[in-house]
Amino acid sequence: MREAVLTWCVPLELLCSHPLPVSAFLKTQVKLYTYRACAGKDEMGKMVSVINTVDTSHEDMIHDAQMDYYGTRLATCSSDRSVKIFDVRNGGQILIADLRGHEGPVWQVAWAHPMYGNILASCSYDRKVIIWREENGTWEKSHEHAGHDSSVNSVCWAPHDYGLILACGSSDGAISLLTYTGEGQWEVKKINNAHTIGCNAVSWAPAVVPGSLVDQPSGQKPNYIKKFASGGCDNLIKLWKEEEDGQWKEEQKLEAHSDWVRDVAWAPSIGLPTSTIASCSQDGRVFIWTCDDASGNTWSPKLLHKFNDVVWHVSWSITANILAVSGGDNKVTLWKESVDGQWVCISDVNKGQGSMSASVTEGQQNEQ
Amino acid sequence: MEKMSRVTTALGGSVLTGRTMHCHLDAPANAISVCRDAAQVVVAGRSIFKIYAIEEEQFVEKLNLRVGRKPSLNLSCADVVWHQMDENLLATAATNGVVVTWNLGRPSRNKQDQLFTEHKRTVNKVCFHPTEAHVLLSGSQDGFMKCFDLRRKDSVSTFSGQSESVRDVQFSIRDYFTFASTFENGNVQLWDIRRPDRCERMFTAHNGPVFCCDWHPEDRGWLATGGRDKMVKVWDMTTHRAKEMHCVQTIASVARVKWRPECRHHLATCSMMVDHNIYVWDVRRPFVPAAMFEEHRDVTTGIAWRHPHDPSFLLSGSKDSSLCQHLFRDASQPVERANPEGLCYGLFGDLAFAAKESLVAAESGRKPYTGDRRHPIFFKRKLDPAEPFAGLASSALSVFETEPGGGAMRWFVDTAERYALAGRPLAELCDHNAKVARELGRNQVAQTWTMLRTIYCSPGLLPTANLSHSMGKGGSCGLQLMNSFNLKDMAPGLGSETRLDRSKGDARSDTVLLDSSATLITNEDNEETEGSDVPADYLLGDVEGEDDELYLLDPEHTHPEEPECVLLQEAFPLRHEIVDTPPGPEHLQDKADSPHVSGSEADVASLAPVDSSFSLLSVSHALYDSRLPPDFFSVLVRDMLHFYAEQGDVQMAVSVLIVLGERVRKDIDEQTQEHWYTSYIDLLQRFRLWNVSNEVVKLSTSRAVSCLNQASTTLHVNCSHCKRPMSSRGWVCDRCHRCASMCAVCHHVVKGLFVWCQGCSHGGHLQHIMKWLEGSSHCPAGCGHLCEYS
């Protein structure tokens, strides 16, 4: 059974670039690509086609793009201080909202679980975190958090089971946790000096309950242990846990990177017995951290790959079996753990040349 | 200081060397100015006026111009400027309205040269003509600008801005006679030095005071202005009307603006309050500073590029009483901190990826990562002037999908929707699910289902001959293992063994498809002939192709019942038989109307009627005394489920769990199951498969999961009299103060269980009603209705 060959349909990146005419001011394009790669036992096929191209009309670099819970909307944020929301259903791209309120580049956006309504959080260089909410079809600023002394680099919503909690990591080294207490009020908890020089990424652990759910009297809220991971400029990944008194305590320090940690991503726990965290760094390395024991204290790193350039992002697929990695060379590679526990690049097109996937130049040529 | 580097630049004759450094001044600085040899800097403030030599490692105080016993207000400098043609000539603007010139060539200690006391209030700015050695311009708080000829004792001409204070005056580099002045009311005026009567041009540049302006050293028609409105604007003054070219948003009001030498689009700014940093902006990229110097602890009051042709050295003075030399290389670059890429895995397996396009553009010619990429982007234009917009940031955002109109997770949705999890016999479920999987191209899953069916539903139909047959065919080693295993341990369960083997044969061969289709067909046949929809049908399908084997087999076993089998089969009371079998209890599954084969049970096997000519009933009775073979597979099945779960296919794990029910449940610990269930339900809900999710919740055996469906269900009760909702208690209405439910028998309030007739809606205590109905079939309330209690 274990030797079985699986048939996968996986997406693969392909990049596009438009040589911009000087007369045209900065244009930011959205492209929809179709890519189909079947990683079979001995064949690897691919098929690329552009579905659509749309101008996001962002005037500067896009720093983050996030799909919502149902995969129907895409939020982008840019240096041009704006956050935009697109409806991407059925391959379409309709601009739903253009949110302005930040006074600096917006680094990251995060969607809250839809059970709380349509809520989007954004964080910016202007040291603010803004929580936007859609009401009656219009998006408006619902809360502004200005509790940081420096650029806020990352925002992440806690699993919905905990309520509406937002973790924000900032360049001032602190991580703040905003908890919605009802009636438009947010309670702020701050972990000072979480990462010296600055925190670059936060990612929540999926909601797991200690022990079995079975013993919980039905109807009563299970006693969750809240945890999240953060990565910072001190080259560390730290795991934080909420104590019983509601204070956050550093639980673990994961050390392996030799430069700034750029992103951490806690894998969704879909049927997996272990906790898994992916981290990537300025040093080009991507590590997969796993923890098998129930206490959650022993984490072992496994080097996924050493890239030649900064790795900016890691993102898990919804079933947590595929990891997408995007690097400074503007390439996205997809990785999957093989049966023998090795991570293999499944979107590897240029097999001979190492890790890289569909090359940029190729995309450009297709484009022209 | 650890990252400080040293930069040496050769500029024509002179060589600039230096590093980031600072020195402490005795007092806050108000302004600084650099000598044209780029080796000295003058710092002026309310109580400081010194010249420092810029050496390689440090600033060295060279001259203190603040001499004399009694500090004069003339020495309280608001601005200072070093003549760019004469190394000995300096001018200061004093807060008392005096403009002073200094001649460093004077032999005495006091270098003061000339004193112009024409302004009434603080002079904000002094400016030498770039090419004319003797022309000095001043702008004052009193709203006047004056032009001095240093060879004369008083001003040559006075310009009235016709408004409040003048904040800045700057001679144009392009035009000999032109200078620009900025005002507190937001206006910028352009003057011809020969025409003091009125300005050439005037426009409103900012909302609020314009604190500073600077002519572009190369694009000489460009003027940058900075204002309290936190903006820096770049104007093209060559056109008939001043045209706004760029607008940079900063965080705080802009106190100083200076174009960066040799970098066409760069300018440095510092702010008047709040923000102590110095920023270098690329005007084409108005949102993010290209570089940021964070050395100062208080407001930066003066900035100056060290050499008019060197872009790396910036000098600054601050209210924190320090003088700094900044190296562009050491600047922190917010852009570098910025993530140039966004990546997100969408729900349907599509990937949104936003990446900086300039990176893409630079891709082709870029050499491998050398660690030097921190200097971006902004130098790139210089390196490759052919590339007009390289270094500018825009991003390409791509969304990758797996299939047109679909998604990588399409299979998940389809599978979830089409899987049958309960309500039918196990074999049918397995078959159905296998078929679904196969149709979706998930062959492994399909095979797993097929195997599950064979493992758990094989009722020992197939005779041993089959076993030998398949072995003879040369099964895989796995198969052989299985066979030997079976043979050794399950000697009594002969039938089931063979069945297994056969299934193995299926799994390994490509007859799978054929098999399933055959199954379908025979299903129908079967129904027609037997008038029974009992599970056996799949067996029929299987068997069909191998009838001959069966026949072959039969003699071997020599079942005595064989001749009667047809009869038996017809007369066989299927349903009844099933009830008799120890049920493989499928939790929460409605057993009532779906007789299913719980494959583990020997008796069930006997159910399967075959259109061959022997009775299975008897066979299996004979063969199955011992415990079921499927137990042997429970470990395997468990591992398989774990495998699927680890593969991220929790759907499979949960589906199998539900379909097999009790058969595997005991082998997997409760917590894992629960975890699978909740994960799967979560996924289903994300895909908005509410119905499926609900079904899974319903079918789940885990209490914690199934209680999900019981949570947050509210029952609203209305009062039967006033029709209003009853809030506090269920039995008495708050509004009409009447008891809602009275027992028709005892006429007391029913507080607990209330039973009522759905026909006449009368009722009461369960006990009472039951008792009543024993004696009478009429309603106890006397309404005449014939109530029925069931």
Automatic annotation (TrEMBL), chain A:
Gene Ontology molecular function terms on file: structural molecule activity
Annotated keywords: Lysosome, mRNA transport, Nuclear pore complex, Nucleus, Protein transport, Repeat, Translocation, Transport, WD repeat
Record-level GO BP terms: COPII-coated vesicle budding; mRNA transport; positive regulation of TOR signaling; protein exit from endoplasmic reticulum; protein import into nucleus
Domain of life: Eukaryota
Name of a matching Pfam family: WD40
InterPro entries: Sec13/Seh1_fam, WD40/YVTN_repeat-like_dom_sf, WD40_repeat_dom_sf, WD40_rpt
Coiled coil: none
Compartments, as annotated in UniProt: Lysosome membrane; Nucleus, Nuclear pore complex
WD repeat ranges per the UniProt record: 55-96, 99-142, 254-289
GO cellular component, one term: nuclear pore outer ring
SUPFAM superfamilies: WD40 repeat-like
Similarity annotation: Belongs to the WD repeat SEC13 family.
Task of the protein: As a component of the GATOR2 complex, functions as an activator of the amino acid-sensing branch of the mTORC1 signaling pathway. The GATOR2 complex indirectly activates mTORC1 through the inhibition of the GATOR1 subcomplex. GATOR2 probably acts as an E3 ubiquitin-protein ligase toward GATOR1. In the presence of abundant amino acids, the GATOR2 complex mediates ubiquitination of the NPRL2 core component of the GATOR1 complex, leading to GATOR1 inactivation. In the absence of amino acids, GATOR2 is inhibited, activating the GATOR1 complex.
UniProt subunit comment: At the nuclear pore: component of the Y-shaped Nup107-160 subcomplex of the nuclear pore complex (NPC). The Nup107-160 subcomplex includes NUP160, NUP133, NUP107, NUP98, NUP85, NUP43, NUP37, SEH1 and SEC13. At the COPII coat complex: interacts with SEC31A and SEC31B. Interacts with SEC16A. Interacts with SEC16B. Component of the GATOR2 subcomplex, composed of MIOS, SEC13, SEH1L, WDR24 and WDR59. The GATOR2 complex interacts with CASTOR1 and CASTOR2; the interaction is negatively regulated by arginine.
Name of this protein: Protein SEC13 homolog
Organism lineage string: Eukaryota, Metazoa, Chordata, Craniata, Vertebrata
UniProtKB/TrEMBL annotation, chain B:
Zinc is among the record's keywords: yes
GO molecular function: ubiquitin protein ligase activity; zinc ion binding
WD repeat copies, ranges: 116-158, 203-245
Catalyses which reaction(s): S-ubiquitinyl-[E2 ubiquitin-conjugating enzyme]-L-cysteine + [acceptor protein]-L-lysine = [E2 ubiquitin-conjugating enzyme]-L-cysteine + N(6)-ubiquitinyl-[acceptor protein]-L-lysine
InterPro entries hit by this protein: WD40/YVTN_repeat-like_dom_sf, WD40_repeat_CS, WD40_repeat_dom_sf, WD40_rpt, WDR24
EC number: 2.3.2.27
A GO BP annotation: cellular response to amino acid starvation
Record has Zinc-finger as a keyword: yes
Location within or outside the cell: Lysosome membrane
Pfam families given in the database record: WD40
Pathway per the UniProt entry: Protein modification; protein ubiquitination
Key words of the record: Autophagy, Lysosome, Membrane, Metal-binding, Repeat, Transferase, Ubl conjugation pathway, WD repeat, Zinc, Zinc-finger
PANTHER family assigned: GATOR COMPLEX PROTEIN WDR24 (PTHR46200:SF1)
Oligomeric and partner information: Component of the GATOR2 subcomplex, composed of MIOS, SEC13, SEH1L, WDR24 and WDR59. The GATOR2 complex interacts with CASTOR1 and CASTOR2; the interaction is negatively regulated by arginine. The GATOR2 complex interacts with SESN1, SESN2 and SESN3; the interaction is negatively regulated by amino acids. SESN1, SESN2 and SESN3 convey leucine availability via direct interaction with SEH1L and WDR24.
Function of the protein: Catalytic component of the GATOR2 complex, a multiprotein complex that acts as an activator of the amino acid-sensing branch of the mTORC1 signaling pathway. The GATOR2 complex indirectly activates mTORC1 through the inhibition of the GATOR1 subcomplex. GATOR2 probably acts as an E3 ubiquitin-protein ligase toward GATOR1. In the presence of abundant amino acids, the GATOR2 complex mediates ubiquitination of the NPRL2 core component of the GATOR1 complex, leading to GATOR1 inactivation. In the absence of amino acids, GATOR2 is inhibited, activating the GATOR1 complex.
Family: Belongs to the WD repeat WDR24 family.
Protein name: GATOR2 complex protein WDR24
Organism of this sequence: Saimiri boliviensis boliviensis (Bolivian squirrel monkey)
Gene that this polypeptide is encoded by: WDR24
